[in-house]
Amino acid sequence: MSMVPTLLSVEGLTKSYGGVHAVRGVAFELRAGEILALIGPNGAGKSTCFDMLNGQNIPDSGRIRVLGAETTGKKPRVIWRMGVGRTFQIAATFPTMTVRENVQVALVSHGQHLFNLWASTARHAREEAGRLLDLVGMGAYAERPCGELAYGDVKRLELAIALANQPKLLLMDEPTAGMAPRERVELMRLTARIAREQSIGVLFTEHDMDVVFEHADRILVLNRGTLIAEGSPEEVRGNAQVRAIYLGEGLLYDARHREGASA
Amino acid sequence: MAFYVVQFLTGLASAASLFLVASGLSIIFGVTRIVNFAHGAFYMLGAYVAFTLTERFSSAFGFWGGIVVAALAVAAIGVLVEMVLLRRIYHSPELFQLLATFGLTLMVEDLVVLIWGPDDLVGRRAPGFKGAIDFFGQNIPSYDLFLIVLGPVVLGVLWLLFQRTRWGVLVRAATQDRDMVAALGVNQKWLFTSVFALGVFLAALGGALQIPRDAVNHAMDLRVIVEVFVVVVIGGLGSIIGAFVAAVLVSELNAFGILIFPKISIILVFLVMAVVLIVRPWGLFGKPEAPARRTPGLTVNPWRPLTTNERLAAIAVLVVAAALPFVAGNYLLTVGSEIAIFVIFAVSLHFLMSVGGLASFGHAAYFGLGAYGVALLAKMAGLPMIACLLLGPLLGLLGAAVFGFFAVQLSGVYFAMLTLAFAQIVWSIAFQWVSVTGGDNGILGVWPSSWAASPSHFYWLSLGIAALAVVILRIIVFSPFGFALRATRDSPLRSEAVGINGKRIQWTAFVIAGTVAGLAGALFAYLKGSVFPDNMGISLSVDALVMVLLGGVETVSGAVVGAIVYKALNIWLVSQTDLSKLVLGGFVVLIVVAFPKGIVGTLEAFMHRRRKSSSSASSPLLTSRIESAE
Questions:
Q1: What is the pTM for the complete model shown?
Q2: Residue B225 pLDDT > 60, yes or no?
Q3: Is B483–A121 a contact, with Cβ atoms under 8 angstroms apart?
Q4: B626 to chain A: which residues are within 8 Å by CB?
Q5: Distance between CA atoms of B509 and B515, rounded to whole angstroms?
Q6: What is residue B625's predicted lDDT score, i.e. its pLDDT?
Q7: B308-596, what's its fold?
Q8: Structure confidence at residue A177 as a pLDDT band (50, 70, 90)
Q9: Which of A125, A130, B37, B209 is the most exposed place for a label (fewest CB within 10 A)?
Q10: What number of C-beta contacts closer than 8 Å exist between A and B?
Q11: Confidence of residue A14 (pLDDT cuts 50, 70, 90)
């Protein structure tokens, strides 16, 4: 139907712990350049789902393919080499290195130079690291120690690291957790811009419904381990079952009011 | 058949004492998260105190009372240690905790010799259990049967204590979540102290109960601590059941291993431990640990290569050092060579610890393997010195490749315990395989070729190789590999997520460090003209750790300074006092408590602060953040 290739395809993903189905038969697809949000109440199976996608958890059954290649049950480092970048709920960077060195490590790894004992890392991919930092607006901080950065800047740096292998797919686990409201908007705008420009597919989980409805092209709603709704923000917002789950939280109404106000 | 049954029962009897000590270690670790290296020292103290008491009061009541009182007395000493020392280091990185309790062990070893003398003491037999029982023509000491019953009884009592008492519930709660227990208003301080007292009591009881079976001597602490480490690695740290099962397993393996490899039965235990580590890295009954705290504190200023000026300064220092033979006599030159060799050894461990975040407590194994490699090549194959120096360290490489493979599967305290156990295994092979290594007599007559024989030539050779080693390791630190290694240390999660195979990187680093240590050992063999099992002993491993710590764990090459200062001090100290272990142990404890950044680290922090305060006018906010981070 469309010329845009399928980037990520998930079929029948299932995981249970001692008889409790954490995730059951989850299936969806993600196209290049698309931003897909995975939402659901606490305990819905978002994290389990996400961990299986990035290789930290092995599914009981089901298949995960990235650009047609099987990634099910592979280690995170292998999945990264297949073109999947990722960020963590609590940003994971290398605190004893400078900002530029953080990105250089990822570039060294991407270039398969990890076992080079002799070259100087300082000169390795210096410009490329600078370009990535400029891309996320961290160029001015390149020589600063990473351990000194404010948390919002650490998140941007992490994004630059995640982009170092020119990923086709970006997995972001609660990208705006722990950030100030203004930083959240900036980070998600930045992510969306990069995704469109480089036609990267983005899958993210998120608790903040403002972020979800403002930035996602499509939304998957997970409840008790199964997908209960899937569609555009408009469709998901109108879904009675989703409303029932979120009723009382008031989040969906908030989002509508916001959008109405800005329109 | 009867023989095997008796062998089995002997194994069970040995397991009782081992279980007591291991369960004490596990209980302490569970709550305080400290691996108490001094546990073997408390075990030994229990045996010595019990020896004195049972000699003094020889009635049946006196004997059994003496054993219990000895354990209680040692537990009281434990309480004192906990309050004075451990309370200061609960929040320190685990490396420092291991080192501090190790320093304590060294001190106790000298104190014990001071009080009870260096000779083995043979205790009296237990009243009521003096005889033996005939089992199809084989004798079983009735005391062994007592111990066989005692083990499960203690296990049961501990179980009741933890399940049925309020204190036990608190301990179990603290094992799961210390902070939550504190938030509920429990007085953490006394909970920790009482847990430590119980753990020490068990260790001392284990030691005291050994006196009817074994002579008491001042080396029993290290022997038992290595076995206990093996037990908790197999059983899982923090699990009492695990300690019991693993103690039985290890003791039986020892009992039957002796029939298979009479000289080196520990190899069988090692093989079992290797299998357990591959299948269940956290032990049979243990739980996977949350990722350990990073060994050094957070370094705020990232490492950088030397500037041109600093390079020139380093070369100037090297030139001055090279001029030593023109002013110094032969004795000083020999001291200089020894210091240069220990610089090599220290920087190899520093590379592993600081860059790799892997604190090895058995690094001397690879030093010793290099030394033995040279000695065997020179004496048996009659190779010339150059060939020996090049090939000898390969034995260190080989050892590091084999042991390192297993060791890097673990991290933090498990890594430290495992490397120590490996080093003890290598040591006992050197000690017991007399036909090849000469055992305690070592290998003598390893002399350098004539071109390197004079003290000044040998000094230049050592100095040159030391400078080369430092430069090469520095290059590696700033190479892509060095960055990958630091990345793995900084954040295992992130490095895995950018395609870095952390275990392989760490394994490679372990092999590099082992090879460089082997090179140091090779030179050392030529310096001394001989090799002995002590060239791979625990105290040498600790020497290296102290050098690194003294120089500064968080620095790039602090170990160079640490090695020079420490070795010079050590050589001077040994010539001044017989109680070098006591002084050394006290020194280690002092550094950990008062001086954790080391010489170079402290200097760097000082320079850093000065530089920052001169530029603070532009960004006061930033400076305050740095300081609070420090």
A1: 0.87
A2: yes
A3: yes
A4: 148
A5: 10
A6: 35
A7: ABC transporter involved in vitamin B12 uptake, BtuC (1.10.3470)
A8: confident
A9: A130
A10: 120
A11: very high
